[in-house]
Amino acid sequence: MTFMRMIDSNALKNTNTTNTVVANHRQIKLAILLPCQILSIICSLFVFINIIYRPSKLIKSIGNHFILPLLITSFIQVTTELSMVENYLHTGIVRPSTNSYCLFFNWYEFSLNGISLFIMLWASIERHIIILSQFVFQIQWKRIVFHYIPLCIAILYPPVCYAYLIFIYNCVNNWNYYELLCTAPCFYQNKILGTMDWLVNIIIPAFSIALANLLLIIRIIHRSTKIRHNPERIKKNRKMTIQLLAISSLFLIFWLPIAVTVDIIIRDRVLLNDNADLAASVLVAS
Fold this sequence. Notes:
Layout: H1 2-53, H2 55-60, H3 67-91, H4 99-132, H5 140-168, H6 191-224, H7 231-285
Helix pairs in contact: 1-3, 3-4, 4-5, 4-6, 4-7, 6-7
């Protein structure tokens, strides 16, 4: 009996130690995120003010159109979704702890990330057309078909896709309110569906952005040797390429690690929940 009490006491101490370490990690993350969030909001407001006072500079050039929805999406994410994450880091629990909030939290997170990723993907592809076949966009119907429609699809596809997967797809969510995002949505329990989401909505777009930018550099270098007589055109192409590379490089620094690890993390969470449910069922049956 005394031995069992010692085991229970040691287990309780280990649990308390683990909880303290996890809480400290959350507070450290929160201390890092808060200053970054404030700085990001200030920079975004400064950019928006410049756009308001000089809108023609952004609107006139078709190659800059992707920047505005990307900025708006990032601003929404920093001011709202990041605050939801910080609330969890501060309290250690997702609040309100309800099924509807967890559904919305997952949809909101996945949708905003997806919008940014697909806008960046289309911008990387479109830059090839703008620089190397710029006359395409001088025709109105081609401008609509090859510019505005793809951009609208990039913005609308992620929220519609995840609305189906999270709200409509028939499965049972096993939420853990002590995990960020209440753990993973239940559609990941379907291995085929989870893998398809990981490939189509994360892996392929992320690596396509890197590939498109690499090919653009190669094509620009090759083309520059043929238009040496037009230094103004070379300068403009170089400027547009550097602009896209600067944005996409920062974007990929954060996205490529996510693309590689997110499926492993989510599958581990789903497996952990399944094992917990199985253990609970065994205990009830016994």
